[in-house]
Amino acid sequence: MSQMESLWDAPIYGLNQSDKAELLLSRLNGLSQWHREHCQSYATLLESAHASVAANDYSEILPLAVQLFKQVRLSSITDDEVFKTITSSGTSGSKSQIILDRTTAALQSKALVKIMQSWVGRDRLPMLLIEQSNLIAQRSGFSARGAGALGLSFMGREHCYALDEQMQPNWPVIKAFVAAHQNQPVLIFGFTFMLWEYLLKPLMQQGVCLGLEQAIIFHSGGWKKLEHLSVSSEQFNRHCEASIGSSCVHNFYGMAEQTGSIFVSCEQGHLHCPIFSDILIRDPMNLAPCPIGKPGLIQVFSALAQSYPGHSILTEDMGLWLGDDDCPCGRKGRYFKVLGREPKAEVRGCSDTFS
Ligand SMILES: [Zn+2]
User: Fold this and answer.
1) Do 146 and 238 fall into the same domain?
2) Which candidate in 12, 260, 261, 328 could, as Cys together with 108 as Cys, close a disulfide (CB 3.0–4.6 Å)?
3) d(CA 336, ligand 1 centre) in Å
4) How large a percentage of the chain has pLDDT more than 90?
C-alpha cells in the first residue's frame, strides 16, 4: 500500500494536525479496505455497523473494542504467512492474540526506531533494562512485556539487566554499569511499576543516587499500581532525579495491539502522537467524539496494522485531548494525557501481570 511511503517521508512530529491527519487518514482508509477484503470477521463488523472504508475524518473509522482481540482471532493473512503471534497477557486468563506477518513486524520495528531516534538520537546508547536477564525472560515465554522490552532493547547496546531471579536489584551489575558509563548518555528502560518498585524504591531506602546525570529514562505501563501507592508522575520524576541523577524522564503509552506506533511524553509531560498514529477521545456513554478537555475513552489509530485489523481500536483507557500543534515543547500534531483505566474495565496492563 503506497500511502505508507508518504508517512515514512514525513517528519515524526513536524506536521500540523490538519496535514498530518490527511496523510494518516489516507493510509487508514487503505487499511480498512484491505482488511475488509482479507478478514471476513472485519468485513462482517463493518457491514453490521454500516461503517465506511472511505472515512472523511477519524470519527468515521470503525473502532474495534480492544476486548474483541481476546474473543476472536482477527487476521488478514493466510496461516502460512504468519511470522509470529504476540499475546497480550490478562489477569482473567483471556489473552489478546495479535497475528503478525514479516511485513507488519518490519513496519513496527521501523516505526519504533524512527520514533525513538527522535527522542534519543541516532546513536545506540548503553542500556540498563529494569528487567530480569534475557535468559530468565526467555524461560517465561514471549509475553507482551517481553516484546515491549525487546522492541526497545534494539535501541541500546551493551545491555545490562538490573534484576536478578528474585526480582531484586542485581547491585554488582548495576554498579558495573554506572562505573562504565558515569559521564555519558545512557538509556534506562523499565515498566513504570517495575522501575519504581525494584529500582527507585531500593535506591531511596539506601539513600543512594546512581549519579547517571546523562541518563534518558523511558518507562511505560500503567500508573494503576502506583496510584494505589499514591505516586504521581511528578513524584516519580523527582525520584528519578534524586535516585538515578537525571530528570530526563519520558513515559510512553502504547498497546500490544498496536506495537511500534507508541506515544511518548515530552518535557511537559504531554503524550505526543507521532506521524504513524493518532488518537480520538470518545464519550464512554454514547461514544460521541469529545472536544479538547473533556475526558473519555481513548481510541487509537495506527498506520502499521497491516496483517490484522487493528488500525482503529477503542481502548479501555480514559484520556484527555489536550490540544493540537501548540504544545510548549514545539512538537506539532495532537497531544494528550492518559487518565487511567475506565473504572469497570478489566485490569489488563502489561506491567500489571507481574505481581
Ligand atoms: Zn510537548
Assistant:
1) yes
2) 260
3) 9
4) 70
User: How remote is the CA of residue 344 from the centroid of ligand 1, in Å?
Assistant: 30
* Domain assignment present for 174: yes
Q: Rounded to whole angstroms, how far apart are CA atoms 28 and 295?
A: 25
Confidence class for position 319, pLDDT limits 50, 70, 90: very high
Residue 293 belongs to what H/E stretch?
A: none
Task: Please tell me the distance from the alpha carbon of residue 119 to that of residue 216, in angstroms, as a whole number.
Answer: 9
Residue 88's φ and ψ, nearest 5 degrees, are -100, 125
Report how far Cα 79 is from the mean position of its chain's Cα atoms: 27
Distance 267 CA to ligand 1 centre (A): 6
Percent of the chain with pLDDT over 70: 87
CATH number of the domain to which 193 belongs: 3.40.50
What value does the mean pLDDT take over residues 164-188? 93
Q: How many CA atoms are closer than 13 Å to the CA of 280, on its beta-carbon side?
A: 22
Taking the centre of ligand 1 as the mean of its atom positions, its distance from the CA of residue 84, in whole angstroms, is 34
Q: How far apart are CA 151 and CA 351, in angstroms?
A: 15
pLDDT band of residue 353 (cuts 50, 70, 90) is: very low
The answer to whether the CB of 299 falls within 8 A of the CB of 282 is yes
Cα 282 to Cα 289: distance, rounded to the nearest angstrom: 4
- pLDDT per residue as tens digits for the range 100-144: 999 999 999 899 999 999 999 999 999 999 988 765 555 555 455
In this structure, the answer to whether residues 205 and 165 fall within a common structural domain is yes
CA of 323 to the centre of ligand 1 (A): 10
Query: Domain range holding 44?
Result: 3-79+262-346
